[in-house]
Write a structure and sequence with these properties.
With 210 residues, the chain is of the alpha/beta class. 47% of the residues lie in helices and 17% in strands.
């Protein structure tokens, strides 16, 4: 791995969108709206995403959780019923992906954390230029986050098996949207967990050997 590629990883961050209990487990407003099949698919991305986050921490790639934490007056709640309400366990990140010391946890109040949190200023202060997008939902919050990031000049990578939507069709349509409207090098920008873990571990070994 070249010095340039190692430098790029130093300027990268993983963004984990809406992996809150409300979106994943029975009893959550969003999870119950999706039904058992959606819940199964949402839960299925947890193990690969956990592997990705472990590899990111090994490689010193920052992790940013951007998770709904709604308040009663939020404009989004004019469209959707109250969900992931701030201060409840339903707004907490699922236990298997619990943030670790050094991770950043941002509360967001609408689809994109660029709108309702300090995400952009935080990334800018850290010199972050590339974002690895993961979480829920491919065609909604991940899409709006990606659009805002693209228009701010970030380099984007979508982790295809660490994203999911209410239906598999919606997930695929979301990925196609990223490829059509935002990707400049799709083969590099739409990646799997296995590909990235192998790449990041190789970068870490190269760094340690330098």
């Amino acid at each position: 791995m070249s010095t340039t590629e190692l430098d790029t990883l130093r300027d990268s961050a993983v963004v984990v969108i809406d992996l809150a209990n409300d979106f994943v487990y029975p009893g959550g407003v969003i999870a119950d709206a999706g039904g058992p099949e959606y819940q199964r698919r949402a839960q299925a991305i947890i193990p690969p995403l956990r592997r990705l986050l472990e590899a990111a921490r090994r490689t010193a790639i920052p992790i940013v959780y951007a998770t709904d934490a709604h308040e009663p007056g939020d404009s989004e709640l004019q469209k959707w019923p109250p969900h992931a309400m701030r201060g409840t366990r339903w707004a907490e990140v699922v236990p298997d992906l619990a943030p670790q010391p050094g991770d950043v946890v941002l509360e967001k109040r609408t689809y994109s954390p660029f709108v309702s949190s300090e995400l952009d200023s935080l990334l800018t202060a850290r010199g972050i230029k590339r974002l690895y997008i993961t979480g829920l939902h491919t065609d909604c919050c991940a899409r709006h986050t990606s659009g805002d990031a693209f228009q701010r000049g970030y380099d984007l990578v979508w982790v295809t098996d660490a994203l999911q939507a209410f239906t598999e069709e919606a997930h695929r349509q979301g990925l196609d949207y990223f490829k059509t409207w935002y990707a400049t090098a799709p083969d590099r920008q739409l990646r799997t967990v296995d590909e990235l873990v192998a790449e990041w571990d190789a970068a870490r070994r190269a760094r340690e050997a330098a």
